[in-house]
Design goal:
Length: 437
């Protein structure tokens, strides 16, 4: 019987490397991917995998109480259980908000609340895998001094939290004045060395790649395929929460684009093992101020033309030179993909329409919801189609966005769903008069 195993593999050359090697690119400079022994995984039937994963869903013991590590054989099968660093990430809610469906005239809109996680974003899903592997390497004697990332906010928060839990030093590079206060204070509070640079995310990304050329500093950005391994479980978890049904369409906001290829990787593995038997469509939503993938898409996936991303409320995807561009294009071509751009007004109103249904959406979720609204209006998505929108972060990280919206202060935005506060004297009569009750 073949053993479950995984290794790094060049996405073009097919050359392989052990997961214990500190490496991020192949000899041809292409990004790596994690490749699993599919024949070993196929020794179980799709039904057997579904039963195992459903059984673990009720397990309260670590590490299987994590949505990621409950799929350990599909993530890092050789990693010793005692080396896993988990904060019980995953198993986030999949909601079908009645008011949102009614407002849009749909019946099957679901929102996957990936921001309801330890540090408040989907980045926890990949960071538990990466930091667990680093923890394993350190225990084996690898001379790793710290883990580093460039970030627009959420990656730095996840890295700092997981490294602090593991007792591993972390270093984060952030673009000056371009992330929310809530995001900035997270890595500071968790003890990371926070370096604010007078540049944008793309400048931070260039610097961190140079910084981590030193093999004693481990790179934590999504060009490291270990991050994709955790994030791909979003696809698996969604199908599991739908009783192993496959959505017709998934819509995800895209910035550096690792999340797009992660969705595809999850579906690829489920198809290869017989857990599911059909493909969904994957749609990427981009802010119009930061839309290099959209520009490529409307030109038949012409090669990436990096841009200088403009000011957008969707700050976490304000990226003009995404490192996972080629991965994303490969996924989109394989999953009937589309790319949609969304204006500042569209993303802001979409987020706050969803808030009226009981959600509390970050601006990036607003980008995905704005794309859904556009496609629905164009009749490109039917009213009974099962659509899952990926919510990537918790709205509490973006209070400035929320307050600015309801005070009608956001640039280029007419706040259609603004809900201003009211003031009156402290008497029942005055309150009733004000409320018309």
């Amino acid at each position: 019987m073949n053993a479950f195993s995984a290794q790094f593999r060049g996405s073009v050359s097919g050359k392989t490397y052990p997961l214990d090697q500190v490496i991020y690119r192949d000899s041809d400079n292409q990004l790596l991917e994690v490749s699993h022994n599919i024949e070993a995984l196929q020794q179980k039937t799709g039904q057997e995998w579904r039963q195992l994963f459903d059984q673990r869903a009720a397990d309260v013991r670590a590490p299987y109480n994590s949505g990621i590590w409950s799929k350990k054989e599909w993530v890092l099968p050789q990693l010793p259980l005692e080396d896993i660093i988990t904060l019980k990430e995953g198993w986030t809610s999949l909601l079908r908000p009645p008011a949102l469906n009614k407002a849009l005239g749909h019946t099957q809109i679901w929102v996957k609340q990936c921001g309801n996680s330890h540090s408040g974003s989907f980045k926890d899903l990949g960071m538990t895998v990466l930091v667990s592997q680093v923890n394993h390497l350190i225990k084996k004697g690898h001379p790793i001094k710290a883990v580093a990332c460039a970030s627009t906010g959420d990656t730095s928060a996840a890295l700092a939290s997981y490294c602090a839990f593991a007792g591993i030093p972390s270093v984060v590079f952030l673009p000056k004045g371009k992330i929310s206060t809530a995001q900035l204070i997270q890595p500071i509070s968790n003890g990371a060395r926070v370096v604010v640079l007078d540049t944008d995310f793309d400048g931070c990304m260039a610097l961190v790649q140079e910084f981590t050329a030193d093999p004693s500093i481990y790179l934590a950005n999504s060009m490291n395929p270990l991050r994709i391994e955790g994030q791909k479980t979003i696809s698996i978890e969604i199908c599991q929460q739908l009783s192993w049904d496959v959505p017709d369409t998934l819509i995800i906001p895209g910035g550096n684009l690792g999340n797009v290829s992660a969705l595809g990787a999850g579906f690829d593995l489920m198809l290869a093992t017989g857990v599911i038997n059909k493909k969904p469509q994957i749609i990427v939503a981009q802010a119009a101020k930061a839309n290099p993938l959209y520009t490529s898409y409307i030109n038949n996936y012409k090669s990436l033309e990096p841009i200088r991303a403009g000011e957008t409320q969707a700050s976490a995807i304000r990226i003009g030179n995404p490192v996972s561009f080629e991965r994303a294009v490969k996924t989109l071509k394989n999953y009937q993909g589309q790319v949609v751009e969304v204006s500042e007004e569209e993303l802001s109103n979409a987020a706050h329409l969803a808030d009226r249904s009981g959600l509390y959406c970050c601006p990036h979720t607003g980008v995905a919801l704005g794309a859904l609204i556009k496609l629905s209006e164009q009749k490109a998505i039917s009213k009974d189609q099962k659509v899952v929108v990926i919510s990537t972060a918790h709205g509490l990280k973006f209070s400035e966005f929320k307050v600015g919206y309801h005070e009608n202060r956001l640039p280029e935005v007419a706040s259609r769903y603004a809900n201003p506060m009211s003031e009156c004297e402290a008497s029942v009569g005055a309150v009733k008069k004000l409320l018309g009750m």
